[in-house]
Amino acid sequence: MAGNLELLNSVLAQARSENRAALVGYLPAGFPTVDGGVQAMIAMLDGGCDIVEVGLPHSDPVLDGPVIQTADDIALRGGVKIVDVIRTVREVHTATGAPVLCMTYWNPVDRYGVERFAADLAEAGGAGCILPDLPVEESEVWRKAAEQHGLATVFVVAPSSRDERLAKITEAGSGFVYAASLMGVTGTRESVGREAQDLVARTRATPAAQRGLPVCVGLGVSNPEQAAEVARFADGVIVGSAFVKRLLEADGDPAAGVAGVRALAGQLAEGVRKRD
Amino acid sequence: MSSEFFIPDPEGRVPSPEGYFGAFGGKFIPEALVAAVDEVAAEYEKAKADPAFAAELDDLLVNYTGRPSALTEVPRFAEQAGGARVFLKREDLNHTGSHKINNVLGQALLTKRMGKTRVIAETGAGQHGVATATACALFGLECTIYMGEIDTQRQALNVARMRMLGAEVIAVKSGSRTLKDAINEAFRDWVANVDRTHYLFGTVAGPHPFPALVRDFHRVIGVEARRQILQRAGRLPDAALACVGGGSNAIGLFHAFLGDDTVRLIGCEPGGHGVDTGEHAATLTEGTPGILHGSRSYVLQDEDGQITEPYSISAGLDYPGIGPEHAYLKDVGRAEYRAVTDDEAMQALRLLSRTEGIIPAIESAHALAGALELGRELGPEGLLLVNLSGRGDKDMDTAARYFGLYDGDNSEGEK
C-alpha cells in the first residue's frame, strides 16, 4: 500500500486555495499513554488542525526543549515502542482521514531498518516523515525508500541556511519544507522574530518553492496571535510544545487534557485564517 | 618549517571528505548547525596550512602545557604484569592534569581565528571542562561547561576548579545525568547561540570534522611516545594500551603506531560491574552500529534505537558511544578492545599508587588493568606502552570511599 503523500499535497493545496495557512499540530506518540495520545491527536484534528505530526519519542531529543523532553520521557517510561508509534499513525489516520506525518530522530529509523520503517509507515496510512537530524547529504537511502512507498520527505531549513543550501534542500524534499523560525530547540517563545519572515522569503525564492513546494513555519509558535502573524507569510503554521503543555498541565485528568488540546486547535485554526 | 608538536595526520588517509572512516562517521546534525560545523572544518583546513597557527600552538604546548610529556618505566608495578616491561606515557603531567589540554588549546586558537567570543563544552570527569575553562581564562573567552548532575557530585573537585577559573558550570539533570546528557544539553545551547559560540568538543566523536580534528591535536601523544620508547627500550612495544570512553587519548596514542604491524593496539573499555550485568559502558564490546551525537559508530542501544543508560565508576568513560575511527579500527581488525571492570580498574589504581608513587585517574586505571592482564599473557619478554591519560587527584573521594580510607573507616584493604 502506498503512503499518503498525495493526500498531504492536496490538503496543503486546499488551504492555499482558501487563502489561508494550513495548521499542523505535533504531539509525541505514547504521551501520556498510547491510547491517550491517539485521542489527543484526533481532538487536535477535530479542533481545527489540518495535518498532524506524530513524534517518535527518543532517549536523546537533542533538538527539543524541556516541554517535549518531558513528554518523551513519560512516553518512554510508559514503554512506547516503534510499533506503538506506527499504530498511532494508523488509528489517527483511520479515524480522521487526515494526513499524518511521523517526526523522528534518525537513529530509531536506522536501527528499525529504513526500508522496513518506510513500508510500515506507508501501510499504516502515513503521509511521510520529518527527520530533523538527517541532513540532505545523508538522506539518499531514506529518500529512495520514501519515494518507493509514496511518502513525503520533509526537510528542515534554518535561518543559518545559506541560499545555495536552501535550493539543494528544497529540491530534495517533498510535501512541504519546514522552516525553523529561529535558531534554537523546540518550545514556546514570546514572539516570532523577523528571522522567520526572512527565511521564508529566501526559501520561497528557490526553484522548488517556485514550482509549488509549500513552506511551513515551526518553532516557538504557541498562540493564535503568533499563528496569524506567521500565516501572513507562510503556507502553514506548525505548533508542538503548546499542545504538549496542555496535556502536561492536565496531569491526572486525561479528559481535560484532550479538551485543552481541542480548544487550542480551534483558536489556532482561527489564527491561521486571519491574513489581513 | 614543520611543527614539532602539532602533527596532523598526513593527507589521503581516513576520513573521507564526507568524514567517513569506512562505514563510520559522517555528519548527522540539524540543518541549523550545518553552517557552524562547516565553518569549523574550513577554519581547521586553513589553520593546518598556516605556519603561524602551528608556531603558536607549539609555543603553548611547550611553554604552557609542558610538552613533551615524560615516559616513565614502572618496574615495581610491572612485577604484577607477568614481569613484562611497562612504560607509561605521562599525559597526567600536562598542565591541568590530563591529555585533554592538547585538543583544547588547538580548538581555543581556532575559536579566536573564527572570531567567536564564547565557548561551551561538555565534560564527564571534569578534565575536559577544566582544560577548557583554563584555555578560556588564558584567552579571555566566556566559558560555559555542561556536566551531568551525577558527575558534578562524584567529581566535585573539578567543578570547583572550573568555577575558580571563571567558568559557568551547569549541572544537567536530564536522562542518565552523565556525559551523554551533558553533550545533549551542549548541543541545545549551540543551536541557540551558534553565532558567537564555539562548541569545543572534547573527544573524537561527534559530527565531522570533530573526530579527525580532535585526533590530530592528540596525535602528538603517540608520536612522542613512539620516539621515546625506541630510545629507551630499543624497540617498538608489543602493545600500546589506552582507556576508551569517547576515545580521544586512545586515538592519540594509537595513531603513530597504525603502520607498525607488530604493535597491538588495545583499547580498554569500562566494563562497570561486568558486561554480563548490563551495567557497563563497553560500547565496542557490547554495542551495535547506530547514530549518536552526530556520527555513525557503535552505540549502546535497544532494538528500537533508543540509547541505553551506561554505567561506569569512571565519569570520564561513562558514555554509550565511541569515536567512529575506533569503530573502524575494530571492524578492520587493527585495534582490539577489551572490557575492564570497575574493580579491576580500582585495584590497578591502588597498585600503581603503592608501587610507583603515581596516582592515576580512574579512567587511566582501566588501561593499567589491561596492561596487567596483557603482561601476564606475554610474560617477561613483553614490552608494553600505556597511556596514563590523567592524574587521580579528582578521584580521591571515590577512591577513599571505595577503599575505606577516611578516618573512622576500618574496611581498608578489604575490597
The total strand number of chain B stands at 14
Question: Could you give the distance between the termini of chain A?
Answer: 42 Å
So what's the overall shape of chain A?
Answer: globular
What is the helix content of chain A? 40-55%
Structural category of chain B: alpha/beta
Strand order of the largest sheet of chain A: 5-4-3-2-1-9-8-7-6
Q: What portion of residues of chain B belong to β-strands?
A: 15-25%
**Overall outline of chain B:** globular
The averaged pLDDT of chain B comes out at 95
What structural class do the secondary elements of chain A suggest? alpha/beta
Fourth-level CATH superfamily of chain A: Aldolase class I
CATH architecture of chain A: Alpha-Beta Barrel
Tell me which protein chains meet in the greatest interface and how many residues each side has: A-B, 39 and 38 residues
User: Which stretches of chain B are low in confidence, meaning pLDDT under 50 for 5 or more residues running?
Assistant: none
Oligomer: heterodimer
Could you name the CATH topology of the largest domain in chain B? Answer: Rossmann fold
Strand order of the largest sheet of chain B: 3-4-14-9-10-13
Major sheet of chain B: 6 strands, mixed
Give the overall average pLDDT of chain A. Answer: 96
Secondary-structure element pattern of chain B, one letter each = EEHHEHEHEHEHHEHEHEHEHEEHEHHEH
Helix and strand pattern of chain A: HEHEHHEHHEHEEHEHHEHEHH
EC number (chain B): 4.2.1.20
Subunit structure (chain B): Tetramer of two alpha and two beta chains.
Family (chain B): Belongs to the TrpB family.
GO molecular function (chain B): tryptophan synthase activity
